[in-house]
Amino acid sequence: MTMSYEEVEARESDSIEELDMERSAIDPRLPHLIAAAREQRAFMRLLAAERRSLHIPQTEVARRMGTSQAFVSRFERALVDPQHSTEDRYADAIGRKVERRLVPG
User: Fold this and answer.
1) CB neighbour list of residue 73: distance below 8 Å, 6 or more residues apart
2) In a domain, 105, yes or no
3) How many angstroms separate the Cα of 88 from the Cα of each of 29, 39, 41, 83, 91?
4) CA triplet 69, 74, 100: central angle to 5 degrees?
């Protein structure tokens, strides 16, 4: 069963939530940056959930991406800060495509 982006985001706690919001007084961009980081991490977890629902081993994703299983594991746990091209390669390795769109902020 594939989980939605919102379900993944709500289901898994995120260490980013532990950031001290008082710092936003120092940098008013901080809430936006935190929200963007949360969204990216939730998306990475969504990709991992999709891989698991398709029963594709991490080793196979790594082979298809031309990388190591250890990197795929770190990626899925959001321990890396990937470029969009990495997300695209991961999605391609599990037979999916990432679509991005520009919306008003």
Assistant:
1) 58
2) yes
3) 27, 16, 15, 9, 5
4) 105
- Whichever domain contains 84, its CATH number is 1.10.260.40
Query: Does 12 map to a domain?
Result: no
Tokens 């008082």 correspond to 22
The domain total for the chain is 1
45: containing domain: 26-105
- The 10s digit of each residue's pLDDT in 52-101 is 999 999 999 999 999 999 999 999 998 988 899 999 999 999 999 999 88
pTM greater than the 0.85 cutoff: no
- Provide the residue type at 69 as one letter: Q
